[in-house]
UniProtKB/TrEMBL annotation, chains A, B, C, D:
Organism: Prauserella shujinwangii
Protein name in the entry: Hippurate hydrolase
Domain Peptidase M20 dimerisation: 209-303
GO molecular function, one term: metal ion binding
Pfam families per record: M20_dimer, Peptidase_M20
InterPro entries recorded: Amidohydrolase, Bact_exopeptidase_dim_dom, Peptidase_M20, Peptidase_M20_dimer
Amino acid sequence: MGTRAASGPAVSALSAVLAGLDARLPGLERLYADLHRHPELSFAETRTAAALAARLGADGYEVHTGIGGTGVLGVLRTGPGPTVLLRADIDALPVEEKTGLPYASTARGVDAEGREVPVMHACGHDMHATWLSGAAALLAEHRSRWSGTLLVVFQPGEESGGGARAMIDDGLFDVAGPPDVVLGQHVCPGPAGWVLTRAGVLMAATDALRVTLHGRGGHGSRPETTVDPVVLAASVVLRLQTIVSREVAAGDSAVVTVGSLHAGTTHNVIPDHATLDVNIRTFEPAVRERVLAAVDRIVRGEARAAGAPAEPEITELATYGVTRNDEAATTALTAAFDAYFPAGRVAEAPLVTGSEDFGEFGCAAGVPSVFWLVGGLPEREVLDAIAGGRFESDVPSNHSPLFAPVLHPTLRTGVETLVVAALHRLGSPGVG
Amino acid sequence: MGTRAASGPAVSALSAVLAGLDARLPGLERLYADLHRHPELSFAETRTAAALAARLGADGYEVHTGIGGTGVLGVLRTGPGPTVLLRADIDALPVEEKTGLPYASTARGVDAEGREVPVMHACGHDMHATWLSGAAALLAEHRSRWSGTLLVVFQPGEESGGGARAMIDDGLFDVAGPPDVVLGQHVCPGPAGWVLTRAGVLMAATDALRVTLHGRGGHGSRPETTVDPVVLAASVVLRLQTIVSREVAAGDSAVVTVGSLHAGTTHNVIPDHATLDVNIRTFEPAVRERVLAAVDRIVRGEARAAGAPAEPEITELATYGVTRNDEAATTALTAAFDAYFPAGRVAEAPLVTGSEDFGEFGCAAGVPSVFWLVGGLPEREVLDAIAGGRFESDVPSNHSPLFAPVLHPTLRTGVETLVVAALHRLGSPGVG
Amino acid sequence: MGTRAASGPAVSALSAVLAGLDARLPGLERLYADLHRHPELSFAETRTAAALAARLGADGYEVHTGIGGTGVLGVLRTGPGPTVLLRADIDALPVEEKTGLPYASTARGVDAEGREVPVMHACGHDMHATWLSGAAALLAEHRSRWSGTLLVVFQPGEESGGGARAMIDDGLFDVAGPPDVVLGQHVCPGPAGWVLTRAGVLMAATDALRVTLHGRGGHGSRPETTVDPVVLAASVVLRLQTIVSREVAAGDSAVVTVGSLHAGTTHNVIPDHATLDVNIRTFEPAVRERVLAAVDRIVRGEARAAGAPAEPEITELATYGVTRNDEAATTALTAAFDAYFPAGRVAEAPLVTGSEDFGEFGCAAGVPSVFWLVGGLPEREVLDAIAGGRFESDVPSNHSPLFAPVLHPTLRTGVETLVVAALHRLGSPGVG
Amino acid sequence: MGTRAASGPAVSALSAVLAGLDARLPGLERLYADLHRHPELSFAETRTAAALAARLGADGYEVHTGIGGTGVLGVLRTGPGPTVLLRADIDALPVEEKTGLPYASTARGVDAEGREVPVMHACGHDMHATWLSGAAALLAEHRSRWSGTLLVVFQPGEESGGGARAMIDDGLFDVAGPPDVVLGQHVCPGPAGWVLTRAGVLMAATDALRVTLHGRGGHGSRPETTVDPVVLAASVVLRLQTIVSREVAAGDSAVVTVGSLHAGTTHNVIPDHATLDVNIRTFEPAVRERVLAAVDRIVRGEARAAGAPAEPEITELATYGVTRNDEAATTALTAAFDAYFPAGRVAEAPLVTGSEDFGEFGCAAGVPSVFWLVGGLPEREVLDAIAGGRFESDVPSNHSPLFAPVLHPTLRTGVETLVVAALHRLGSPGVG
């Protein structure tokens, strides 16, 4: 296989490059705890970006900051050869941390509506950033062992959507040219030390909608003079459940979540509107279309049932396509993972309902991309859960206020995967 | 009738005292617009209290501020005779004004949870304060025409509950002794120029509850790892509707309103709890008890149905008893109103679902109290609505973001009622 | 008072007429048990009508049967004087009796849809028929003591609606001319031995609607090929609760009940429609109009939200106006009751949410009518409940499968009321 | 492959056996129309069984009737060799036919609750019986071309569940010994002329539950004296939707259908209970367990929220395991289908949410079984639907009142599949 032959020499560099990982783990652990303690919301990742940029600079990268707002690009050219883009996302979520960790966050931020909210790295982007910082350092330290161009991308605004697009639109690919391949990874609620991926569709498409339901406000004691938007919102939430339960075939997959519902300011005033933020996951265009049409139909039908004085408004907050891994590139990368990791640690991923804007880099550049998952939960508990018939354990997973991936071997594995993946695509010195 | 005879001389002072009202109306209108433009939330009425206290001082009252937080007491003694307490409430609501008035509020405040919220005089307390300020000035100007002690009370924290109690507990009645009668009024969605009251129960009891529903948070794409509190909250809201529709007899009255419902921070995170603020109005203790028990039963039953990981919490935000007008005092006052106002302008009030902590002053002092309503909507529109079979017109009413009582004759009528009511109880010079 | 003077002589006949009641009670008790054991649905009261007609004939009445289907009219003329119509309804309900009484019903009938259903006198019409049969016998036995014409009407089809109208349309008033007054009564969940009435509106208007919701049927395992009418029906039922809870003012009264909901035939087939029978009670035209409009709006809005393939159908099953007692006639009758019954046993009735087509007789004849209630529950338990703050006791009431009025003194009281009421209107011999 | 070699000679008989199919199609069409016009509910298939038994007898089978109630077994022994069981189910459903076909059903039956209900072959069992009757005749006519024992089984009570078990328990396998393989088929909403199957799990497990919700009955106008089971049932139905929408992972599959909901008899009586028949489909034991637990939790939690006077009752109406095709037997049969049918007509089936008790025959006998699907919808419409991104077309599918498979080529294909499958397993004369 051509790819394999070409990367052969680079792969031989693996043991040398990764030999220094053990010594760097304590430093990475400190970085991780620092990022975790100081989470920042989408497009507000100034402290995070500065810290990561500083490390890239110290490692010898040419550093570009402020791309797409708060994005960071590190470039390292070691000679002729392919250009490989490694991407990590760096933003956190408006979740109030309840892990009790010594480095738990107490941070607050301001959300898109100007509300002050708690902030937490509840999706592991702190881990992603730490992994990529660690891999970037090792690859820089051993730059003599590979030839080509490495693009290290710390992307803002993945949770909100728009971060990948913002960096691309802001000229990301103008700095050092477009990449030949785009690589990225996510910590997942699989067993720590495991790597999971699949060719083709890996992750769901997301549509995030804001639904504003209009009522007529008034005194809490005189509902007959009002149209109560709280009751309307409750009806909409319950009715939205029927989309998945009644309108999506058992053999298809969809998720419809109302993640946020807000109405009113106090007990004795009936407010004049309610706001729902809805998140939709699908894998098939026909299912997506049906679900979106059903949301629209339900929201409008319920507003009519309520006698709402104005039509509801439905606006798009974010939209991501499915994350689709290039078939050939994924096959080759899986072989590289298989060759490096112990037997049984590289597995086929199930379809993941999570979504990503990672795919936009490959799409925009017109090159293959591969995304994979790195387990972050205690291996024993996850395997017990699987033996009990469930992929899921009871360990809190991404977006939970209790989400706390185990540091070991998670930290190590995610650096290894990036180095394996990068070297597998980069050329050998004097060859590439 | 004794009361009538006794008050005869004082009543004869009426025309003299009220003769100056016309000249004062422009100033009162400016005061009203100023208060309206600068609303302040419960117990944060510092600017309002200062303005009202300053006017009392200028009118010759002995002024006491900071009673019960931001409460104001003005005392005027003119000789022997009864002590009459006139009360107005002065706080505003977390409502975003949408009246488009030239003096509309754009104010913001901080609510009990520390959230920044819009603030509006959506319940007419700016009108109440203006009325009382106007009446206090007239009664002070003509102090030679009556004998007794006038207590002018500007009460904070009526909307939140607790304001009357706070002033009493803070020694209100120690300053000039307890009153012999307590009088107060509220602007209502009746026709402007009308005065409505009734002996016995006039206004409902209120119980305000905060319900916290616990779920288990997680990723918006993986609801199966969570217990979704948004869905639970929606079920609770719909099920609470059945209390009034199924558990309260048609001949009884109750209102159960969820005025505020908040859950979550963003679309792709399932939050771990939801918060509902519930407002309950009843007139009968047995109905109140049944409704409260039903709320508790529904909230707990729904949490079980949801598999909630923790019991819901139900805490009391505020509680008011019914507002009960003293029979004899109300009969006498109605006669005084009848004697002053044109025929047809004084009517029996219906039972009002609104609530008040006004009653606490009379209860604490062990003296009669009378509360009445002054219409604030355009007379023609209200009468047309009544002719069409409804007490309610379509004009926005109290607590609506569109609430805007007509200034004329509303401003005048509310000053007249206070002066009539006060003089009717105060003694004549050399007699009282 | 004219009425009183005129009825004086007739009233003096009271003790003579009622002297025979004691001896007749065992026979009336047997009649009641027999009717109770053999209930018949609306317009199928053939056995009941035959038994009552036979007794009227034996008592000397001119008997007309088959009026309006299964209605019975007995006529007794004793001389010049007023014509008094006494009416009892005689039909039963599709309820499965669970009283465990020795004379409990095990009867079955066929409802309007051709379904076989259990049948029970769950509303006491067996008591009404027994009362009127007893009073008719006593008044016939003592026909020399009054002068005038007595019309004894056993009306079918009150529960279904349409029975009064059917008798009138079938020439009821052609037989012996129209009455001068129409009198009727109902057993109620008040204390046995008590009589309750009120001038003006006594009972609610009823609108009964059938709502047919159309879905699209299919296999229970493939809801995505269907529009599930069971889910749609559930949404409609919950949303209908909001009419009373949100759209009817606390000071107004309305009841919206879905008494019957049917959809589907088996677990693994999603049916293509659901049927709801809805019963609405109101006292005010404006409230009635708003409630009916809200039902229509909700049903159609929910069907849209469901994506129903066809508009819902809403048809009227029955409609009754309010039962309104003539002011003067009620005042006079109340005086007669007061004069006869021990102090405290005649009380003002509350507004009753039950409905009646009794009022149609008086309307059609253009004469006054009076309707009253006779308590049927154990006095002690009801009074204890009232003392506890509730008009309602826990004793099962009308339409419950456990409804079982106490026989004593209920049987006696209801005969007494009819005799008092009739004699109070009839003339004296040689006078009338 | 051993199976293939062994069946080689028998397969060579195929063209001879199927040569007579064309001539028999008109007769099969008449049989189908007759069965369709006269559907019978589960375990009441007396007319159907008699007709099918008569044809078997005429074809020379040894016929056994009344096995497991209304089951029929035909036995044909032609010499040494394997015993092959071919099974068709013959019962119909309580669905009111709305196809408008000339041979549409107007039949009525009595369901398990004694209700009279419409009956329709809405699941194609009339087609299954016709297919098997046709294949049995052809195989009997050409009995000299195969060696072994053929068991032709017409099974009652598949829709209700229990039919396969009843036949087995009633000694099905005692008549002619157990089979070596069990074969069966179902008409499906795929394209007519197509055959679909898959090794391993093909069809879902079903659990059918009856949920009885207890309220307290009473007068429709006085809900406050009742606990309304209609409102409770509505809440349960909506809440059950959340099992699939919130508790089943997007990568898992489950269906929860309330196929039937009944409460009450008339509009003005609040009934004392409601009955829901719930159908649950799952493929994985862990998912099944979670769904069943959730149903229990929701039903009980909602009853508590309602203040129900008694615990709900949940009873099992039927339970089926997944339908699992033997791997080796399915591979071999698929090869036989591939060899016979035109290219593209034999496809891999998706996971089917339908359920079957077919699997019980193979389980009880301890032998392999294979089940497959035969398309019954117009090929062009189905393929257009698939091209539009959906497996489903808009053509009404199984259990719909509009279900009407196209007769051609559906009738032919289902006879061919049975003959191919039987001969592929049976021996050659003088060899088997």
